[in-house]
Amino acid sequence: MTTQQDIPGRTVYIVSDGTGITAEALARSVLSQFNLNFSRIHIPFVDTLDKVRQAKDQIQAERDKTGQLPIVFSTLVIPELVTELRKADALHLDVIQTFVEPLKAELGVSPKEEIGLSHQNMESLEYKKRIEAINFTLEHDDGQSNRNLEDADVILIGVSRSGKTPTSLYLAMQYGLKVANYPLIPEDFERGHMPKALQPYKNKLFGLTIQPERLAEVRNERRPNSRYAALDNCRYEISEAEGMMNLENIRYLSSTSKSIEEIATAILSNLRSY
User: Mind listing the domains of the chain with CATH numbers?
Assistant: First the structure.
C-alpha cells in the first residue's frame, strides 16, 4: 500500500497573462492542504502564442524528464492560448474557466475573453485591500517576519502543523484581512511566556490547537519516525501551548474536526467582540 510519505513531491507551474498574484495565492492555499513538497515555478505575462509555446515546452520537458505529470495552475483566458498550453501533458487546473463556464451556462451570456480583465478593478479599494492582505499574509507566514506586526488584523499562534497557514490565506483571500501566523516552539515553552515579538500585540492573538493523535499523524507524513512527530512530543507541545494560551487569556479553538470556513467564522466573531 502506498502511503502519502512515499509519494514524491511535484513541480507546480503557475501560468498567467498578468502578474500571477491571483493564481499564486490560490495555488498556495490549495497545495497547503497536502503534506507534500511542491516546487513552484512562476511563468507570468504569458500573453502571446510565442510565450505560451515556450511555457508549454518547459512544462512538457519536465514531464519527459521526471515521468510525472506537472501540475499547472493557469489564469489564461484567450482560447488560442489556453488550447496551446493544454498541449503539454500535465494536470491542468484552469483557475478562470472553472468558474466562467458554469456562470456562462447559468447567465446565458458569453465571457469577454480579454487579457487582463481580472486586473481592471485594481483601482477599487476592495481589490487593493485583498492584494495587500495576501502579500502581507505570505510575508508573515510561519513567523518569517516580525516587521509591521502592528498592521496585522489578527495573529494566529499554535504549534507547528495545527492549521495556521491555510487559515491565514483563507482569511486574506476571502475577507481581505492581514494575517500573521507564528509557531509556538519548545523554546517558548521553556521560557514560559509568549515570544517577545508577540507580547505587544496580545489583543490580536488567536490560537489554534489540535488533538495530539491527529498532529502526530500529520507530522509523520512530513517527517516520519522523527522526534518532531512522536506522539508523546505532540502531547507535550499541545499541553504546553494550551497552558500558555490559558495563562495569557488568549482565545483558541481546536482545528481537528473543523473546516477552514468554521475556523474563519470563529476568528471573525472573536475580532468583532473587541
Answer: 4-121 (3.40.50), 125-272 (3.40.50)
